[in-house]
Design brief:
Number of strands of chain A: 26
Distance between the termini of chain A: 33 Å
Order of helices and strands of chain B: HHHEEEHEEEEHHEEE
Radius of gyration of chain A: 35 Å
Largest interface: A-B, 68 and 56 residues
Helix content of chain A: 10-25%
Shape of chain A: elongated
Strand content of chain A: 25-35%
Shape of chain B: elongated
Radius of gyration of chain B: 31 Å
Number of strands of chain B: 10
Structural class of chain B: alpha+beta
Helix content of chain B: 40-55%
Structural class of chain A: alpha+beta
Oligomer: heterodimer
Largest sheet of chain B: 6 strands, mixed
Chain lengths: ~500, ~270
């Protein structure tokens, strides 16, 4: 007997050694990472296991942040005038960029005036953009925000700039600044005579420019404009004003043009497009509506009858959760995810939020003048610390987390101390087909219920303790808690199909 | 005064002797005036006429027509792979290798920029790809002139590409001398091909900046600002985001991948390195 015990002890010891060595092996399997200059897959400056580094690539057993060659910083492109953050030194330098650890002064933004438009960019970028447009650089460093920058050009006075060219009285519709030569490099030679609020077609100016039946779109403007014989834009296209001398003489504001409160989408006679309302100047095509004059029209950009049956304006976005199961009720189906839909140019474009429901879609709308504009975004699903909350107030603090308090739930980690548990509002997806993490998460729903019976004097039993565990509702509640923790329990998948296994087990001992 | 009068009389006599009367003089002056005006017009208009030789043949147009189909194919190919013809560090999406322009292998970290000068790189890729075609087109041009009866001398053709707003410009440096009755020399030809690729590339650079700084980008704002732009954003299970930027008017598109601020499934205890 003693011998048997000894043999059993040796076998036990042997098994323990094997288990420990296996554990050690699994710990060693998680290889330490190095900062790899280039990986075998051709990516630069990645913290990966040494085995993934490309041959002859530099590698240091530290994070890339701490190395000289992969240190992230700002890469300045002196041609385009753009700056990119988080660029490794070696990547920047090898592409002929200028790398610096902190953002260089060249990356400072200011207001770049480009005719009657503006861009909030760096000085070199401003020079580049001005060069493309044949304008002299007009950079206003003192303007420090984009809104102010845009407003500064909108207030520019515009009118007819009359000048002599090849023995003719030519005219250009432009700003006072450009006309009078403050912005050199313009076609007027800076010697024009400026007539504020006048169009080049005004008869009193006596220019060679006259009205036409042609129209055009202007970069940066929503509307369709009449075009004069010199190619200048005139007032907003209005078919009824094509022969109106006054309309061809003086600049009219958008509010003075045809139907200023409507979008005028697909209107044959009115080119007063309104981008916020979903119409924009576009060239007519064989499929689009036609204008009475010219080849441009206010194209309808809005989306009619989208997937959810509603209509949306161009630029609006909204959340869609159309996979099987529910959302926001601690019971999302396996493989389901949130989607953000966007209406762009009359087309419904969808954008997935992160998989495994690590992101959820949030939606709100703004109303102005009775017009609603819906906006949606994918944001992080903050479920991670739900089960660690023991107080209802902490659990439901929506500034910190996305959880729901369940009064009846008891989790395995609570040791049965008190009722009530905090569970994710949108359950996270788990990789239940590999690894042990899913099992660890789902096991939080394990629960042992002790039911006490008392035998009667004349036979039979009477439940005296834990009797609720015998009810169908208890089983249902426990399944609910299980499902709320993640992809656990008897869930359906995103297509509505049930799993091959029951998903839970009740042992009665 | 008398001397002047004498001169006038003498010259008048001379014209009379030559058989010209006053009408003839006026006609000569008119002809001279027309010639002067014609010369001025030629001087002023010549640059606008471009390099047009006999029968309205334009070598620039010829080269443009020859290069464009090949160029378009290459641009589409490169643009669908993140600006690379043969990318390293890519994700396969819809059977296409899409280059990661910003990548991190880790979870919870923002990505490292992989290509900070995308436009320049794109130009370089196109340049190397169309070089054989440019040389072939230059030879075709030579053959075309020869067919028209010219004696042609052509040097080795070289090209440079620049992507600018609205256009892709190819400067073909191919010194060529054509001789028939007289000689004409051309040093280079400028070929312009309409393309909105510049805006797509620069918007991509801006998105990469957002990805590397914040871990994600808000594409709806871009589309609201730029009416002709459509951005499709697809998030894959491993945290990769595929961006497809399309100009809705020209239908050109640019595709690239990014992996930034990726989240693991669950708590990611087994995934985090």
């Amino acid at each position: 007997m003693k011998n048997n015990k000894g043999i059993f002890g040796i076998i036990l010891l042997f098994l323990i050694v094997i288990v420990i060595s296996l554990n050690l092996f699994s710990v060693n399997a998680i290889e330490n990472t190095v900062c790899c200059e280039k990986t075998q897959s051709g990516l630069y400056c990645q913290d990966v296991p040494s085995s993934e580094c490309a041959p002859n690539s530099r590698q240091v057993p530290t994070s890339c942040q701490s190395t000289s060659y992969c240190k992230p910083g700002t890469c300045y492109d002196s041609v385009e005038g753009t700056c990119l953050d988080n660029t490794p030194q070696i990547v920047c330098n090898s592409n002929n960029g200028t790398w610096s650890e902190i953002k260089p002064a060249q990356c400072g933004l200011g207001c770049c005036v480009l005719g009657d438009q503006a861009a909030f960019v760096s000085l070199v970028r401003c020079k580049r953009l001005s060069g493309f447009l044949g304008l002299q650089t007009n950079f206003k460093k003192e303007i420090t925000n984009e809104v102010q920058c845009v407003l500064s050009v909108q207030s520019q006075e515009k009118g007819a700039c009359v000048y002599d060219f090849e023995f003719e009285r030519a005219c250009k519709f432009t700003t006072r600044e450009e006309c009078l030569g403050n912005n050199a490099g313009n076609s007027t030679g800076g010697n024009g005579e400026f007539f504020a609020g006048k169009l080049c077609t005004a008869e009193e100016l006596g220019t060679k420019c006259g009205p036409t039946k042609e129209t055009l779109c202007i970069p940066g403007k929503d509307e369709v404009y009449f075009k004069d014989s010199c190619g200048n834009p005139a007032n907003i296209y209005d078919a009824s004003k094509i022969n109106d001398k006054e309309y061809w003489a003086n600049v009219k504001d958008k509010s003075e043009a045809c139907n200023p409160s409507g979008s005028n989408a697909n209107s044959a006679s009115c080119g007063n497009c309104n981008y916020p309302l979903g119409s924009f100047c576009r060239e007519t095509t064989s499929e689009s509506a036609k204008a009475s004059y010219g080849n441009f029209i206010c194209q309808d950009l809005n989306c009619k009858k989208t997937q959810n049956g509603q209509s949306y304006k161009h630029g609006e976005s909204w959340c869609v959760y159309d996979d099987a199961g529910s959302q926001g009720e601690s019971d999302n189906s396996v493989g389901s995810r949130f989607y953000k839909h966007i209406c762009i140019n009359g087309e419904e474009v969808l954008e997935q939020c992160a998989d495994f429901r690590q992101e959820e879609c949030v939606e709100d709308s703004i109303s102005q003048g009775g017009i609603k504009f819906s906006q949606a975004a994918c944001r992080v699903n903050r479920w991670q610390d739900c089960t660690a909350q023991t107080e209802k107030a902490d659990c439901e603090n929506t500034d910190r987390r996305d959880c729901a308090w369940n009064e009846e739930a008891i989790l395995a980690i609570q040791n049965g101390s008190s009722k009530g548990a905090c569970l994710p509002l949108n359950t996270p997806g788990l990789k239940f087909w590999e690894g042990d993490e899913a099992q660890a998460v789902c096991s939080l729903a394990n629960y042992q219920c002790t039911v006490t019976f008392e035998k009667g004097l004349f036979g039979g039993e009477k439940c005296t303790g834990g009797c609720e565990c015998l009810s169908d509702s208890w089983e249902k509640d426990r399944i609910g808690i299980c499902k709320a923790l993640g992809d656990c329990g008897p869930k359906i998948n995103w297509a509505g199909q049930e799993g091959y296994k029951e998903g839970y087990k009740i042992d009665v001992k | 005064m008398n001397r002047h009068k004498d001169y006038k009389e003498k010259t008048s006599d001379l014209y009379m002797n030559l058989g010209w009367n006053k009408r003839g003089q006026v006609a000569i002056f008119v002809i001279i005036a027309i010639v002067i005006v014609a010369v001025i017009l030629v001087i002023f208009l010549r640059p606008r006429l471009g390099f047009t030789t006999t029968q309205g043949f334009s070598p620039e147009k010829y080269l443009g027509d020859c290069i464009e189909p090949n160029l378009r194919d290459n641009i589409n190919k490169i643009a669908s792979q993140g600006g690379y013809y043969n990318p390293e560090g890519f994700v396969v999406y819809n059977s296409t290798k899409v280059k990661y322009l910003c990548y991190t292998s880790q979870y919870y970290k923002t990505c490292m920029v992989q290509q900070p000068k995308l436009r320049e790189h794109f130009e370089g890729e196109i340049d190397s790809l169309i070089k054989p075609k440019v040389e072939q087109c230059a030879m075709n041009l030579k053959a075309e002139y020869e067919r028209q009866g010219y004696a042609v001398s052509l040097s080795q053709a070289e090209e440079s590409i620049s992507i600018v707003p609205g256009n892709i410009r190819i400067n073909v440096i191919a010194p060529i001398t054509i001789t028939k009755e007289s000689s004409q020399n051309f040093r280079s030809f400028k070929v312009n091909i309409k393309s909105e690729m510049y805006d797509l590339i620069m918007t991509s650079v801006s998105i990469i900046d957002y990805e590397s700084t914040y871990g994600d980008s808000e594409t709806t704002l871009y589309m609201q600002y730029y009416p002709d732009l459509k951005i499709e954003k697809t998030k894959l299970s491993d945290g990769t985001t595929i961006y497809v930027l399309t100009n809705v008017i020209s239908k050109e598109s640019f595709t690239f991948a990014s992996r930034s601020l990726a989240w693991p499934p669950g708590y990611g205890i087994e995934e985090v390195q």
